[in-house]
């Protein structure tokens, strides 16, 4: 009996010390969904950039500037001199409106009211955040934002739908520098 108990104990220890076998996935997914998504996004991006180039070509009297951040802009009112541009934590007081690429008003300045924005510390769409960093107090700039720099895939869940490119005309009223201790 003692031998039987020893054999059983050794057998359990032998089989109990095996490495656990990895579970295999029930189904294997291919990259076809991702490939289709990439192709769709490239197509959408190309279409929006072509539309922007069309707007630029149809306005030869306007000097458009390509931003390294992926949008285009031009000055309506430019301030010359050594005025400051907003930095992290500065409070920017500004007004803006939003139109689509057909110049139909989506949001007017009256609807949006005057905004106060703490630079890089509050939520605002990426194109406007980067655009504000280019501006000085007293300037007015018109920005052409492709959808990926505006409200992207989801829109603003109100008046701006998915993948809509927009035009914003922005005026900075004042820049209040962050107090440093």
Q: What does the model show?
A:
The protein has 181 residues and is an alpha+beta fold. The chain has a single domain (36-176), classed as Roll (Chitinase A, domain 3). Helices cover 29% and strands 23% of the residues. It is built from 4 helices and 7 strands. Strands 1, 2, 3, 4, 5, 6 and 7 form a 7-stranded antiparallel sheet that branches. The longest helix is centred in the first third of the chain and has 26 residues, at 32-57. The radius of gyration is 28 Å and the shape is elongated. The protein starts with a helix and ends in a 5-residue tail after the last strand. The model has no long low-confidence stretch (mean pLDDT 88).
Element layout with pairings:
Layout: H1 2-16, H2 32-57, E1 65-66, E2 72-77, E3 91-99, E4 105-107, H3 109-112, E5 115-118, H4 126-132, E6 140-145, E7 166-176
Antiparallel strand pairs: 1-2, 2-6, 3-4, 3-5, 3-7, 6-7
Labels describing this entry:
181 residues, alpha+beta, Chitinase A, domain 3, seven-stranded antiparallel beta sheet, 29% helix
